[in-house]
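Why should sequence recovery work at all? Because a backbone constrains its sequence more than one might expect. Tight turns favour small or flexible residues, buried strands favour hydrophobic ones, and helices have their own preferences. The token representation captures these environments compactly. In the example below, the structure is given first.
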């Protein structure tokens, strides 16, 4: 009888360990899915900028001159629908509105910053939201979201309602026509 109870106890520890492994696998899959989605969104945005290179190649940091350079915290997330395409600036504004909407819908509590940042990292090696000199030839697309990793895995001790740092930074060239 004692042998049966001991074997049941050992079996229950094994089943609990398998359940914990399953939960860790699901969490990892979600994190990988968010990273993959962010990379796809960044690639899509680079392609949008390349399709309208006359506007996206403008290096001016004056607000509104190059609508492709933006911070999703600074724009209104309203839907913009258009039946006729006007100017290249109109197309850029529609690209930005569409892309910002997709980022906010497909990643949890997402933030995106697009700028010409020659050095997107802090001194400690972590990515940063600010854009530095904003004078690079390439455009940096910075995307961050809230993930469900343990605080020790994230390197932080608190969970915020907004992403503390970008999780993905992708650089792209915009100044050529194909």
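From this structural description, the recovered sequence reads:
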């Amino acid at each position: 009888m004692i042998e049966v109870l001991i074997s049941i106890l050992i079996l229950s520890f094994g089943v609990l360990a398998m359940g914990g492994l399953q939960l860790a696998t699901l969490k990892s899959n979600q994190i990988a899915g968010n990273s993959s989605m962010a990379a796809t969104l960044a690639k899509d945005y680079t392609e949008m900028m390349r399709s309208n290179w006359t506007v996206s190649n403008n290096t001016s940091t004056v607000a509104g001159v190059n609508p492709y350079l933006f911070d999703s915290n600074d724009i209104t997330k309203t839907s913009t629908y258009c039946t006729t395409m006007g100017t290249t600036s109109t197309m850029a504004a529609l690209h930005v509105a569409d892309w910002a909407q997709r980022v906010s819908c497909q990643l949890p509590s997402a933030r995106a910053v697009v700028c010409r940042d020659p050095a997107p990292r802090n001194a400690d090696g972590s990515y940063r939201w600010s854009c530095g000199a904003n004078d690079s030839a390439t455009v940096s697309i910075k995307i961050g979201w809230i993930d469900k990793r343990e605080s020790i895995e994230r390197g932080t001790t608190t969970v915020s309602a907004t992403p503390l740092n970008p999780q993905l930074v992708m650089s792209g060239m915009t100044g050529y026509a194909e």
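A few observations help interpret the result. The chain has a mean pLDDT of 81.
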